[in-house]
Amino acid sequence: MTKAFSDYQATDFQNDLAQTAKSVESTLASLLTIAHGNERENQVIEAMRQGALAGGKRLRPALTVGAARLFGVELDNVLITASAIEMLHSYSLVHDDLPAMDDSPLRRGKPTVHVLYDEATAVLAGDGLLTKAFEVLSAEATHPDPLVRCQLVTGLAKAAGERGMIGGQMLDMIAEETDLSEVEIVRLQQKKTGALIAFSCEAGGICAGAGEREMASLKIYGANIGLAFQIVDDLLDLESTAETLGKPAGRDKEAGKLTLIDIYGLDAARAKAQMLVKEAQDAITWAGEKAGFLHRLAEFVLHRSY
Asked: How many CB atoms lie within 10 A of CB 6?
């Protein structure tokens, strides 16, 4: 008999999530090594390490690992891919925190890269992490099949580019000056946050050689998780504190940005996030007990406090 999701206990999930984060941290550290004899250039590598190794939920790598598990592929086989995606995510945070963008002094409860160094070094550190992510994905050590590596590179580029995260960031900047409609706010969130989250799921399937139907289910799961994540993020920004979040709270309200909370109201926004998580979980029921980690991860996104 196939085990139910409920057979995968919350304590097992917490242990798996912590182990995934620890493994990603170790892999990132090994990929971002300080070069001896190049002391002057090492400052940018140190800044890159600061941006990538400052902790965090490691949600995107966990999604990649969880998606690969649906097909019986375990952590070690997708760890480099997951870490490359986290490099790109870290680049976006380093640049988001810059004075020209969100002007944030804190990230994950620690001083941001431009505060620790300077703005120019932070720009270069972000550029370095972005570039390094594609170097890592294109390397044979990531996957023996060059077609798989090409699919990973192309998918990440699309998720991060002008029709994905960058496009969403542009909409986010426009939102400071203009009230967006509900459709535009959803599009902003699908691009800025959702695109990379969705690709993180797809990347696990790509690494595992998933078929079309399985990839379609991962896309549904990822798209729903991405939007639910952003709704919860907006709720936390409104209701939580800087101490809990590890970054300044209330920034959207200060900037005059409309969110789905403003459109729906608090209760309806929470209900929307719950519905999205349920639809995500339903999309992967075909995998049985192997979907336990992703099932719990969806609940984590919904109930997180940071």
From this structure: 9
